[in-house]
User: Fold this.
Amino acid sequence: MPPATAVIRPLAGRGGGAYADRRLNGPIYRLIRWAVRGMARVLFRLRAVGLERLATPGPAVLVANHVSWLDPIILPLVLPRKPAFLAMEELWRMPGVAWVMRLYGPLAIPIRRQGIDASALRRATEALRHGAWLIVFPEGGIPPAGEVRPFHRGASMLAARTGAPIVPIALVGTDDALPLGRVIPRARPITVYVGDPIAVATGDRNALGDAVAQAAAQIRSLRTAARARAR
Assistant:
């Protein structure tokens, strides 16, 4: 059975995507993003495929595979508006990285990886209810050898709670550009593939697992197709 799809629409009375653009997408962010995106296009020949699936303003949970430390930097560069994202709280204690997180603003949401972080989930829910896009790496870490591990259900819980669809996103090439253990990125092509939005039924615990399983399957399929074309 094909996965259920959803059209991304703004939430009534919440301003849709304007929340992120008007209040949190200031000139400093736009300038830095412009400069970093320009470097990424030169160094990585960065491109995105399927962005039209995100063309309509509205909330969405963007779930992506995680194969490199470059992933949370690359993904926001190809999106047409500034997203919120969940990231491990340890980043806020790393020199340099902590400054970047604070500069990004309140859409950068720290989350504890042990147990359930109610504060992070509350902030993520609020962002979605204001029409934001929320990036989640639901594998809970970087798997070995570029595999796509089973996804945790947190992304589908947020989607069900807010009425936002899940949008699968496959990152291809970041693990080659900056593999684990390497500090300086190397010039390798990177492509971001956007899959079909998936609706998450509310009030059905089985639907939570089904939704993230469908997202993981789409990402695996997109990555496999990309590798086949590269041969």
Helices lie at 18-24, 27-44, 71-78, 97-104, 118-129, 154-162, 174-177, 205-230. The beta strands are 47-49, 60-64, 84-88, 108-111, 133-136, 166-172, 191-194.
